[in-house]
Design goal:
The complex is a heterotrimer of chains A (about 400), B (about 350) and C (about 325). Chain A has about 400 residues and is an alpha+beta fold. Chain A is built from nine helices and 18 strands. The chains are: A alpha+beta (about 400), B alpha/beta (about 350), C alpha/beta (about 325). Chains in contact: A-C, B-C.
């Protein structure tokens, strides 16, 4: 019997095979968890469609496959025939399969007696739908509000219906288990919070990170910006931020330091041909990272406008899927929050992430004298599997050099 | 004219100056009535029930009572009663055009319907005869409080067939209530002639069955109307109970602007009726008696025309009711556009 | 105090309080009313204010209306609610529209009292429940209390109300239902329902005699471990939507019980309010136990019993809803 990756979740089309919970040769009971699957929306354990022995695993852990793909095979025990209804989306049987099913039902029906009162219909034919999967409005509302998986709730209502009280009891039991202390409050996770947590955990757990910091003297940039920002805002309708210059400089540097614009692929390093710079934005629902695709091809003005557009839509919750996909490097403008030094966590599968910290005026030794300069710390977190300190240092040094070399009299 | 029962003392008649004023009002009412009928034909007034031919009955009876003290339950054909009670042509016309500020129902009801608290005027319903028990209850209230107000209730010959007419008259007679039942008999209940409404000669003849006096009068003769009403009111104020007055009037126009009387009424019948035009008859009489001169008549006529023209202009320019008033007055305290549950 | 005592005391107090208040109706004078609602009134208030009328219901309502429009506070009694139909035009067509149709110039502060309801071997013409017809009409208020306390407080409010009130007294409760009534003066607001029993599993929404049957059934179910909340509507127009929604949201299960015919009855409106505004709280179908679709209640005891919802039917419906 072929086991398919089931269609689960609206608008979800593919899934990543996680851990196989059963191995080839294992005997499996129907509904035993077979394999973990991760999709854009849910992570789940796929139950076995039948009892038997797992005979082959066709998709390895970490592979992404479309739903409906055959991922394993099993030998069904007890001569139990493969029934098309067990696997969703099994079109192979087609009309013939439907005909078979009708035939099976007919043979199952007991003969009708002379009075017209038939004997009992054999078990399984009629009573299977006791839990119809239809829930009352109150049950659905409670489940949604408290993030309850209704399939986990035992129904005590008529014919096993899940009642509102059942859900309340479930929530209370769960609450008792996870009850916060009297001086605490328990805030349920939003889906985006959960996603961020998973990504960050994966990043921290799998990427051997290293960190480096350089100081950049951005006095020229500050002067330039001071000089042109008013006119720029009037002309372009958006503010000219430091960030636009930083993105410009980083994008140029990434084109030259290709190992920084890369990702780890287990047994290889993938160098990206496009320079797509993600910008971390604190949106009301949580952190999002919209991507400036081909940032290296845009002017400072073009970058300023693109950043304004993406940040605005990020805060308004109006980003499309394409806006957040395909990043090759991330800039985290922590300076906007007043931070002067910090360590970001890499946004996988990228190779590095750059914090641009607050610009502060400091006394700096210039030549043999001391001058007041606008200084900015650049903090780079990088994947040590891909980059060594030397390469990372050259990259960040290049970014520093380019920033410091900005001509205060240039036009923007 | 059959005088029916005549066991009420003859009332006082109108003075010369009262006659002149009644004539002025009747002429004004006629001009207003003709105008609103035309405005219906222009598509401006949605519905008109004309009082033409009924003016003497309405004006004469109102004149015999105390405006602001006595109480008036009128019905839909009582345009002239409204004029007599002192409503201005513009106020009355605003009802025909259903404009904002219309004083009786704020434009919610058909023309002439609603109520006016200061004038003790009620005209609630299009369902005929409902006003009769209401007027009786109204008179009961006056009597219980020991007031000497008289309640007059107007209705057509058609309403005389309704059970409420019987029930109301019976109760009023039992309790000797201060009511004047004023039937404007124009011979038609919409299209149904008297012969198909009743097997007896008159509505007033039924009064005996209730134990109250009933009189049939010429409703086109304003003096006769005045006298009969004054007499009935006097009886009522004296605690002697109700009176039924049947005023024989004429209806010159169809039942309403939506009716076609050529389907049921011979033309000659109307021409005959127009010979007894109460306004013309009163004019001729007053001229003959030297109470009215041509100059004054022309002035009345010109004043009426001007008043109606001015009213037309004013009302046509007025706005319709503000939709925010829609939910007002469903229950006491409903104002300011709050929706009633 | 019984319900009929409450009716009598409310009217007596209001007549003593306000000279504008008077009573009128059939057999209410020397007879004291067929149910003795006005027993002793002629002696106390005189024939002027206790008016025996002819057997003419339309004019009873019409005359009351006219008196109300002229400053009085009439309480008109319709001897049996079955005789209320001749008043329909004066009440629904006229009284209900006085305020609206005069843009507030006039009001109709009148009370039309009517003993209603069956289970008294009244047959087709002494058993009816007419509430739905009147409750359909904006401009009217319709009150149907179930207890002596509510009856007295609400009838006094009805007399003082500026708008026409149809006050329905269930005949069977008159002497069957007794309860404490405070000595001191009180009124109760029209338009407010009352939770007569608190509970958490299902809600039963009712009024009049049926409320008592619901309470009895609820006590039975309490023994079976089902907690029933009983809401007494008390006023049928305006309905207390907030109270209806509150109990429906609380339990998620609503049973509506009335003696009047089910189709297009008061229960239909209650159900609609719940469905429209508490849909997401529902954990079961809105259920109704109500009179059957025959024109009126038959005379024979076996047939009458088929018409009247009884405690057993109500309890069974409660069980079904609780189990759902």
């Amino acid at each position: 019997m072929k086991i398919e990756l089931p269609h689960v979740g609206e608008s979800v089309t593919e899934g990543v095979i996680g851990r196989w919970l059963k191995q080839v040769g294992d005997s499996v009971e129907k509904y035993d968890a077979l394999v973990e699957v991760v999709t854009d929306k849910v992570s789940m354990e796929v139950p076995s469609p039948a009892s038997g022995v797992l005979t082959s695993i066709l998709v390895e852990e970490g592979e992404t496959v479309p739903m409906g793909t055959v991922i394993a095979e099993m030998e069904v025990s007890g001569g139990e025939e493969e029934t098309p209804g067990d696997a969703q989306g099994a079109d192979a049987g087609g009309e013939a399969a439907v005909m078979d099913r009708v035939g099976a039902l007919l043979t199952d029906v007991a003969p009708v007696g002379p009075t017209g009162s038939g004997g009992a219909i054999t078990a399984g034919a009629g009573m299977a739908g006791s839990r119809s999967g239809r829930y009352s409005p109150a049950v659905l509302r409670l489940a949604e509000r408290h993030d309850v998986d209704l399939s986990q709730v035992e129904g005590t209502g008529m014919s096993g219906r899940v009642t509102r009280k059942d859900v309340q009891a479930f929530i209370e039991a769960r609450g008792a288990r996870d009850a916060p202390a009297a001086d605490e409050e328990r805030v349920p996770l939003t889906p985006i919070r959960r996603m961020i947590a998973e990504n960050m955990t994966r990043s921290a757990a799998t990427i051997p990170e290293a960190w480096t910091l350089v100081e950049a003297d951005v006095s020229s940039l500050a002067r330039l910006r001071e000089r042109v920002k008013g006119e720029f805002a009037r002309r372009e309708g958006v503010n000219l931020t430091h960030l636009a210059f930083v993105v410009k400089v980083v994008a140029e540097a990434l084109r030259e330091h290709r190992m920084v614009n890369a990702s780890w692929d287990g047994d290889a390093i993938i160098l990206k041909r496009r320079v797509n710079v993600g910008i971390a934005v604190a949106a009301p629902a949580g952190l999002v990272v919209p991507v400036i695709h081909d940032a290296d091809e845009l002017s400072v003005a073009g970058l300023a406008k693109r950043i304004d557009d993406l940040a605005g839509r990020a805060r308004g919750g109006k980003l499309g899927l394409d806006d957040v996909r395909g990043g090759t490097f991330t800039i985290n403008n922590t300076g906007a929050l007043g931070s002067v030094v910090g360590k970001a966590i890499i946004n996988p599968p990228e190779a590095a992430i750059l914090n641009t910290e607050s610009i502060v005026k400091r006394p700096v030794v210039v030549g043999d004298g001391i001058a007041i300069r606008s200084m900015m710390n650049l903090c780079l977190t990088f994947d040590h599997r891909i980059l060594d300190g030397a390469e990372a240092g050259v990259f960040i040094g290049d970014v520093k050099r380019r920033l410091e070399a900005i001509d205060p009299d240039m036009g923007v | 004219m059959d005088q029916g029962r005549t066991d009420i003392a003859p009332g006082r008649g109108p003075t010369d100056s009262e006659l002149l004023e009644m004539y002025r009002l009747m002429a004004l009412c006629r001009a207003l009535d003709e105008r609103v009928w035309l405005m219906n034909r222009q598509g401006k007034a949605a519905i008109v029930a004309s009082a033409q031919g009924h003016e003497a009955g309405q004006v004469g009876s109102v004149a015999a009572l105390r405006i602001g003290h006595d109480r008036f339950y009128i019905y839909y054909r009582d345009l002239a009663a409204l004029v007599s009670l002192g409503l201005t042509p513009a106020q009355i016309m605003s009802g025909f055009l259903a404009k904002a500020g219309e004083p009786l129902s704020g434009g919610r009801q058909f023309p002439t319907h609603g109520a006016h608290a200061g004038l003790n005027l009620v005209n609630l319903s299009n369902v005929v005869a409902t006003q009769i028990p209401q007027a009786v209850g109204d008179a009961l209230a006056s009597k219980m409080r020991g007031e000497d107000a008289v309640t007059i209730v107007y209705f057509g010959d058609g309403a005389a067939s309704v059970g409420d007419c019987h029930e109301g008259m019976n109760f009023a007679a039992i309790h000797k209530l201060p009511v004047v039942f004023f039937c404007e008999n124009n011979g038609y209940a919409i299209s149904v002639p008297l012969s198909k409404q009743m097997a007896v000669d008159s509505v007033a003849g039924r009064a005996e069955g209730y134990g109250m006096p009933g009189v049939v009068i010429d409703g086109t003769d304003v003096s006769a109307v005045y006298e009969a009403t004054a007499a009935a009111a006097e009886r009522a104020r004296a605690g002697e109970g109700p009176t039924l007055i049947e005023a024989m009037v004429e209806r010159y126009l169809p039942h309403t602007s939506d009716d076609d009387d050529s389907r049921y009424r011979p033309r000659g019948d109307i021409e005959e009726a127009r010979k007894k035009d109460p306004v013309k008859m009163l004019r001729e009489r007053l001229l003959a008696d030297g109470i009215l001169d041509e100059e004054t008549d022309e002035r009345f006529s010109a004043d009426a025309k001007r008043a109606v023209n001015e009213a037309t202009e004013e009302v046509e320019a007025a706005p319709h009711p503000d939709p925010s008033s829609f939910y007002d007055h469903v229950y006491a305290g409903d104002t300011g556009g709050a929706s009633s549950r | 105090m019984s319900v009929i005592d409450a009716v009598r005391e409310a009217m007596r107090e209001e007549m003593a309080r306000d000279e504008r208040v008077f009573v009128m109706g059939e057999d209410i004078g020397a007879r004291g009313g067929v149910f003795l609602a006005t027993d002793g009134f002629v002696e106390q208030f005189g024939e002027e204010r206790v008016i025996d009328t002819p057997l003419a219901e339309s004019s009873i309502a019409g005359i009351a209306l006219g008196a109300a429009m002229n400053g009085m506070r009439p309480i008109a009694e319709i001897e049996f609610a079955d005789f209320i139909w001749p008043t329909f035009n004066q009440v629904v067509g006229e009284a209900a529209r006085v305020r609206y149709g005069t843009a507030g110039s006039l009001g109709a502060p009148m009370v039309l009292r009517a003993p209603y309801g069956g289970g008294v071997r009244g047959g087709l013409y002494h058993s009816q429940s007419p509430e739905a017809y009147f409750a359909h009409t904006p401009g009217l208020k319709v009150v149907a209390p179930a207890t002596p306390y509510d009856t007295k407080g609400l009838l006094k409010s009805a007399v003082r109300d500026e708008d026409p009130v149809i006050f329905l007294e269930h005949k069977r409760t008159y002497r069957l239902v007794r309860g404490d009534v405070p000595d001191e003066e009180y009124t109760l607001p029209i338009g407010a329902a009352d939770v007569k029993m608190e509970g958490s599993d299902i809600s039963v929404i009712s009024y009049g005699l049926m409320l008592h049957l619901c309470l009895e059934a609820a006590r039975e179910l309490a023994d079976e471990g089902v907690s029933v909340e009983a809401l007494d509507l008390r006023t049928l127009r305006p309905l207390d939507s907030e109270a209806i929604l509150a109990t429906a949201r609380k339990t998620g299960k609503a049973l509506i019980v009335h003696e009047d015919t089910k189709a297009v009855g008061v229960g239909a409106e209650v159900a609609a309010i719940i469905a429209e505004e508490a849909f997401e709280y529902l954990d079961g179908p809105i259920m109704r136990v109500a009179g059957p679709e025959v024109p009126a209640m038959p005379f024979s005891p076996t047939l009458e019993a088929m018409f009247m919802p009884d405690t057993e039917r109500i309890a069974n419906a409660m069980r079904e809803l609780a189990r759902y």
